[in-house]
C-alpha cells in the first residue's frame, strides 16, 4: 500500500490512475491517464465517450508496455468499477504490478489521484469528477 505517500524514489515504482469527465461544448469526454509518481509524467492515457472498463484498460496496457524486465509498479486507484474488475486485476498480475486502492469514502487516500487530475486541467476543458 502507498499509505498516503504519493512519491517514488525511482521510475516505475508507484503509479496513480483515475477517470475524470470533461465537458467540451455540449459533449462529455472521459480521460483515463496513468502517472508515474517519480517525476509526475503521464505514461499513457486514453480518452473516450464513457467511463468504461475499456477506457481504463486501454490506458493501462500501453503504460505496462513501457516496463522493462525489472519493472513492477504499485498502481494506485480508487475503488471504481473498472479497477475492481477481473480484467484489470489480471492485466496488473500478468505484468507483475501490484494493485493499491484507496479506502472507500476516504478522500485523503486519493490525494495522488486528485493531483493527477488537477495537472490535466486546461482552460478549454473543465474536469468533473466522474466517480467511475
UniProtKB/TrEMBL annotation:
SUPFAM superfamilies for this protein: Ribonuclease H-like (SSF53098)
Compositionally biased residues, Polar residues: 119-132
Any Pfam family hit: rve
Molecular functions (GO terms): nucleic acid binding
Alphabetized InterPro entries for the sequence: Integrase_cat-core, RNaseH-like_sf, RNaseH_sf, Transposase_IS3/IS150/IS904
Highest taxon listed in the record's lineage: Bacteria
Region Disordered, residue ranges: 99-132
Segments forming domain Integrase catalytic: 7-132
GO BP field: DNA integration
Protein name: DDE-type integrase/transposase/recombinase
Organism of this sequence: Amycolatopsis acidiphila
PROSITE patterns in UniProt: INTEGRASE
